[in-house]
Amino acid sequence: MPDRRIRAKPGVPLVRAVLRAVVLLNAFTSDRPRLTLTELAHIAELDKGTTRRLLHTLSVAGLIHFDTSTQHYMLDIGALEIASAVQVGRDLREIASPILADISSQTSTAAFLWVPHEGAALCLDRIRAPILQIDAAWFAVGALAPLNCGAGPRVVLAFVSDDERERGLSGELPRRTPFSETSATKLRTVAGVIREQGWELAVDDFFIGLAALGVPVFNRERRFVAALSITSLTADIVMDGKPRHLDVLKNASDYIGARLYTS
Protein backbone atom coordinates (compact mmCIF):
# COMPACT_ATOMS: atom_id res chain seq x y z
CA MET A 1 0.00 0.00 0.00
CA PRO A 2 1.44 3.40 -0.96
CA ASP A 3 2.56 5.72 1.80
CA ARG A 4 -0.37 7.96 2.85
CA ARG A 5 1.31 9.60 5.82
CA ILE A 6 0.83 13.34 6.22
CA ARG A 7 4.02 15.32 5.74
CA ALA A 8 4.21 18.58 7.65
CA LYS A 9 6.01 21.61 6.29
CA PRO A 10 8.88 22.79 8.51
CA GLY A 11 7.85 25.61 10.81
CA VAL A 12 4.11 25.28 10.12
CA PRO A 13 2.18 24.02 13.18
CA LEU A 14 -0.50 21.36 12.76
CA VAL A 15 -3.89 21.20 14.44
CA ARG A 16 -3.67 17.90 16.25
CA ALA A 17 -7.38 17.03 16.29
CA VAL A 18 -7.73 17.72 12.57
CA LEU A 19 -4.64 15.65 11.82
CA ARG A 20 -6.05 12.72 13.78
CA ALA A 21 -9.37 12.96 11.96
CA VAL A 22 -7.63 12.95 8.59
CA VAL A 23 -5.61 9.89 9.58
CA LEU A 24 -8.86 8.09 10.38
CA LEU A 25 -10.39 9.08 7.05
CA ASN A 26 -7.26 7.94 5.23
CA ALA A 27 -7.53 4.55 6.94
CA PHE A 28 -10.32 3.61 4.55
CA THR A 29 -9.17 2.31 1.17
CA SER A 30 -10.72 0.43 -1.73
CA ASP A 31 -9.51 -2.88 -0.31
CA ARG A 32 -10.55 -2.10 3.27
CA PRO A 33 -13.72 0.01 3.05
CA ARG A 34 -15.19 -1.26 6.36
CA LEU A 35 -13.24 -1.12 9.63
CA THR A 36 -13.96 -1.78 13.29
CA LEU A 37 -13.22 0.60 16.14
CA THR A 38 -10.31 -1.61 17.20
CA GLU A 39 -8.83 -1.61 13.69
CA LEU A 40 -9.18 2.16 13.35
CA ALA A 41 -7.63 2.80 16.76
CA HIS A 42 -4.70 0.58 15.82
CA ILE A 43 -4.17 2.27 12.44
CA ALA A 44 -4.38 5.77 13.94
CA GLU A 45 -2.29 4.76 16.97
CA LEU A 46 -4.94 6.17 19.32
CA ASP A 47 -6.81 4.79 22.31
CA LYS A 48 -10.36 3.60 21.66
CA GLY A 49 -11.98 6.44 23.60
CA THR A 50 -10.29 9.15 21.54
CA THR A 51 -10.95 7.22 18.34
CA ARG A 52 -14.64 6.81 19.17
CA ARG A 53 -15.06 10.55 19.86
CA LEU A 54 -13.36 11.49 16.61
CA LEU A 55 -15.48 9.03 14.66
CA HIS A 56 -18.64 10.36 16.28
CA THR A 57 -17.68 13.90 15.24
CA LEU A 58 -16.99 12.75 11.68
CA SER A 59 -20.31 10.93 11.69
CA VAL A 60 -22.19 14.07 12.72
CA ALA A 61 -20.41 15.87 9.86
CA GLY A 62 -21.68 13.24 7.42
CA LEU A 63 -18.26 11.82 6.58
CA ILE A 64 -18.44 8.53 8.51
CA HIS A 65 -21.25 5.99 8.79
CA PHE A 66 -21.50 3.39 11.55
CA ASP A 67 -23.27 0.10 10.77
CA THR A 68 -24.83 -0.96 14.07
CA SER A 69 -25.57 -4.48 12.82
CA THR A 70 -21.94 -5.29 11.95
CA GLN A 71 -20.19 -2.79 14.25
CA HIS A 72 -18.17 -1.48 11.33
CA TYR A 73 -17.37 2.08 10.28
CA MET A 74 -17.24 3.22 6.65
CA LEU A 75 -17.06 6.44 4.68
CA ASP A 76 -20.42 8.16 4.29
CA ILE A 77 -21.98 10.05 1.40
CA GLY A 78 -20.41 13.31 2.59
CA ALA A 79 -17.04 12.03 1.40
CA LEU A 80 -18.46 11.69 -2.12
CA GLU A 81 -19.83 15.22 -1.99
CA ILE A 82 -16.37 16.51 -1.15
CA ALA A 83 -14.78 14.33 -3.84
CA SER A 84 -17.11 15.80 -6.47
CA ALA A 85 -15.45 19.18 -5.94
CA VAL A 86 -11.91 17.91 -6.57
CA GLN A 87 -10.39 19.83 -9.50
CA VAL A 88 -7.05 18.00 -9.81
CA GLY A 89 -7.16 15.94 -12.99
CA ARG A 90 -10.69 17.01 -13.90
CA ASP A 91 -9.84 18.23 -17.42
CA LEU A 92 -7.81 15.11 -18.15
CA ARG A 93 -10.55 12.85 -16.88
CA GLU A 94 -13.26 14.63 -18.87
CA ILE A 95 -11.24 14.22 -22.06
CA ALA A 96 -10.23 10.63 -21.39
CA SER A 97 -13.45 9.18 -19.98
CA PRO A 98 -15.26 8.59 -23.28
CA ILE A 99 -12.03 7.24 -24.78
CA LEU A 100 -11.70 4.74 -21.94
CA ALA A 101 -15.25 3.56 -22.64
CA ASP A 102 -14.34 3.09 -26.30
CA ILE A 103 -11.17 1.16 -25.40
CA SER A 104 -13.13 -1.15 -23.13
CA SER A 105 -15.77 -1.73 -25.80
CA GLN A 106 -13.21 -2.49 -28.51
CA THR A 107 -11.07 -4.82 -26.40
CA SER A 108 -13.63 -6.29 -23.93
CA THR A 109 -11.26 -5.41 -21.09
CA ALA A 110 -11.27 -3.14 -18.05
CA ALA A 111 -9.68 0.21 -18.95
CA PHE A 112 -7.85 2.55 -16.56
CA LEU A 113 -6.42 6.06 -16.44
CA TRP A 114 -3.50 6.56 -14.03
CA VAL A 115 -1.66 9.69 -12.89
CA PRO A 116 1.40 10.08 -10.65
CA HIS A 117 0.64 11.02 -7.05
CA GLU A 118 3.17 11.18 -4.22
CA GLY A 119 5.28 8.22 -5.30
CA ALA A 120 2.31 6.09 -6.34
CA ALA A 121 -0.14 5.73 -9.21
CA LEU A 122 -3.59 7.22 -8.65
CA CYS A 123 -6.52 5.64 -10.49
CA LEU A 124 -8.17 8.74 -11.96
CA ASP A 125 -10.81 6.83 -13.93
CA ARG A 126 -11.81 3.29 -14.88
CA ILE A 127 -14.32 1.52 -17.09
CA ARG A 128 -15.48 -1.92 -16.04
CA ALA A 129 -14.95 -4.82 -18.40
CA PRO A 130 -18.06 -5.83 -20.35
CA ILE A 131 -17.60 -9.32 -18.88
CA LEU A 132 -17.98 -8.42 -15.21
CA GLN A 133 -16.57 -11.65 -13.81
CA ILE A 134 -13.11 -10.65 -15.05
CA ASP A 135 -13.35 -7.03 -13.93
CA ALA A 136 -10.41 -5.71 -11.91
CA ALA A 137 -12.57 -4.65 -9.00
CA TRP A 138 -9.64 -3.98 -6.67
CA PHE A 139 -8.87 -0.62 -8.30
CA ALA A 140 -11.59 1.95 -7.75
CA VAL A 141 -11.38 5.58 -8.82
CA GLY A 142 -9.22 7.34 -6.25
CA ALA A 143 -7.27 4.21 -5.28
CA LEU A 144 -3.50 4.43 -4.98
CA ALA A 145 -1.31 1.66 -6.37
CA PRO A 146 2.38 1.05 -5.73
CA LEU A 147 4.58 1.39 -8.80
CA ASN A 148 5.93 -2.16 -8.94
CA CYS A 149 2.83 -4.10 -10.08
CA GLY A 150 0.47 -3.67 -13.01
CA ALA A 151 1.11 -2.17 -16.43
CA GLY A 152 -0.39 1.26 -15.71
CA PRO A 153 1.53 1.87 -12.47
CA ARG A 154 4.75 0.61 -14.05
CA VAL A 155 4.32 3.03 -16.96
CA VAL A 156 3.99 5.77 -14.34
CA LEU A 157 7.20 4.45 -12.74
CA ALA A 158 9.00 4.73 -16.06
CA PHE A 159 7.98 8.25 -17.05
CA VAL A 160 7.89 10.27 -13.82
CA SER A 161 10.88 12.34 -12.75
CA ASP A 162 13.88 10.62 -11.20
CA ASP A 163 13.01 12.05 -7.78
CA GLU A 164 9.42 10.85 -7.98
CA ARG A 165 10.57 7.41 -9.14
CA GLU A 166 12.94 7.09 -6.21
CA ARG A 167 10.18 8.19 -3.85
CA GLY A 168 8.00 5.38 -5.17
CA LEU A 169 10.77 2.81 -4.97
CA SER A 170 11.59 3.81 -1.39
CA GLY A 171 8.08 2.91 -0.23
CA GLU A 172 6.45 -0.47 0.23
CA LEU A 173 6.68 -2.71 -2.84
CA PRO A 174 4.22 -5.52 -2.13
CA ARG A 175 4.66 -9.03 -3.49
CA ARG A 176 1.10 -9.80 -4.56
CA THR A 177 2.07 -12.95 -6.46
CA PRO A 178 5.32 -14.93 -6.93
CA PHE A 179 5.78 -12.91 -10.14
CA SER A 180 5.66 -9.48 -8.49
CA GLU A 181 8.93 -7.58 -8.77
CA THR A 182 10.00 -6.03 -5.45
CA SER A 183 13.64 -5.20 -6.14
CA ALA A 184 14.16 -1.45 -6.54
CA THR A 185 17.30 -2.11 -8.58
CA LYS A 186 15.47 -4.36 -11.04
CA LEU A 187 12.54 -1.96 -11.24
CA ARG A 188 14.88 0.85 -12.30
CA THR A 189 16.03 -1.38 -15.16
CA VAL A 190 12.40 -2.21 -16.00
CA ALA A 191 11.59 1.50 -16.11
CA GLY A 192 14.35 2.06 -18.67
CA VAL A 193 13.01 -0.74 -20.88
CA ILE A 194 9.48 0.71 -20.72
CA ARG A 195 10.73 4.17 -21.69
CA GLU A 196 12.61 2.70 -24.65
CA GLN A 197 9.76 0.57 -26.04
CA GLY A 198 6.95 2.94 -25.07
CA TRP A 199 4.63 0.38 -23.45
CA GLU A 200 4.50 -2.22 -20.70
CA LEU A 201 3.06 -5.73 -20.57
CA ALA A 202 2.57 -7.15 -17.07
CA VAL A 203 1.56 -10.80 -16.65
CA ASP A 204 0.52 -12.51 -13.42
CA ASP A 205 2.26 -9.92 -11.24
CA PHE A 206 -0.90 -8.60 -9.61
CA PHE A 207 -3.24 -11.56 -9.90
CA ILE A 208 -2.45 -14.98 -11.34
CA GLY A 209 -4.24 -15.49 -14.64
CA LEU A 210 -4.59 -11.79 -15.47
CA ALA A 211 -2.41 -9.58 -17.64
CA ALA A 212 -2.30 -5.84 -18.26
CA LEU A 213 -1.02 -3.60 -21.02
CA GLY A 214 -0.15 0.07 -20.52
CA VAL A 215 1.06 3.07 -22.52
CA PRO A 216 2.01 6.65 -21.58
CA VAL A 217 0.01 9.76 -22.43
CA PHE A 218 1.92 12.93 -23.36
CA ASN A 219 0.40 16.37 -23.77
CA ARG A 220 1.10 18.70 -26.71
CA GLU A 221 4.25 19.87 -24.98
CA ARG A 222 5.42 16.21 -24.88
CA ARG A 223 5.22 16.11 -21.12
CA PHE A 224 4.11 12.87 -19.48
CA VAL A 225 0.72 13.34 -17.84
CA ALA A 226 -0.86 9.91 -17.43
CA ALA A 227 -0.87 6.21 -18.27
CA LEU A 228 -3.61 4.25 -20.03
CA SER A 229 -3.94 0.56 -19.30
CA ILE A 230 -6.22 -2.39 -19.89
CA THR A 231 -6.49 -5.65 -17.98
CA SER A 232 -8.20 -8.98 -18.55
CA LEU A 233 -7.50 -12.69 -18.71
CA THR A 234 -4.00 -13.27 -20.02
CA ALA A 235 -5.30 -14.87 -23.25
CA ASP A 236 -7.22 -11.65 -23.97
CA ILE A 237 -4.10 -9.49 -23.60
CA VAL A 238 -1.27 -11.70 -24.90
CA MET A 239 -1.05 -13.69 -28.13
CA ASP A 240 2.07 -15.63 -29.12
CA GLY A 241 4.00 -13.78 -26.44
CA LYS A 242 3.10 -10.35 -27.85
CA PRO A 243 0.64 -7.77 -26.52
CA ARG A 244 -2.77 -7.54 -28.16
CA HIS A 245 -4.61 -4.23 -28.55
CA LEU A 246 -1.40 -2.17 -28.46
CA ASP A 247 -2.49 -0.11 -31.48
CA VAL A 248 -5.83 0.61 -29.80
CA LEU A 249 -4.09 1.95 -26.70
CA LYS A 250 -1.53 3.97 -28.65
CA ASN A 251 -4.19 5.58 -30.82
CA ALA A 252 -6.23 6.42 -27.72
CA SER A 253 -3.16 7.91 -26.04
CA ASP A 254 -2.42 10.09 -29.06
CA TYR A 255 -6.05 11.24 -29.22
CA ILE A 256 -6.09 12.26 -25.55
CA GLY A 257 -2.67 13.87 -25.66
CA ALA A 258 -3.54 15.98 -28.68
CA ARG A 259 -6.26 17.63 -26.60
CA LEU A 260 -4.00 18.45 -23.68
CA TYR A 261 -1.87 21.60 -23.78
CA THR A 262 -0.52 21.40 -20.25
CA SER A 263 -0.26 18.73 -17.57
From TrEMBL:
This protein's UniProt keywords: DNA-binding, Transcription, Transcription regulation
Domain of life: Bacteria
Domain IclR-ED, first and last residues per copy: 78-262
PROSITE patterns found in the cross-reference section: HTH_ICLR, ICLR_ED
Domain HTH iclR-type, residue spans: 15-77
Keyword flag DNA-binding: yes
Gene3D superfamilies in UniProt: 3.30.450.40, Winged helix-like DNA-binding domain superfamily/Winged helix DNA-binding domain (1.10.10.10)
Biological processes per GO annotation: negative regulation of DNA-templated transcription
Coiled coil: none
GO molecular function: DNA binding; DNA-binding transcription factor activity
Name of the protein in question: Helix-turn-helix domain-containing protein
Lineage: Bacteria, Pseudomonadati, Pseudomonadota, Alphaproteobacteria, Hyphomicrobiales
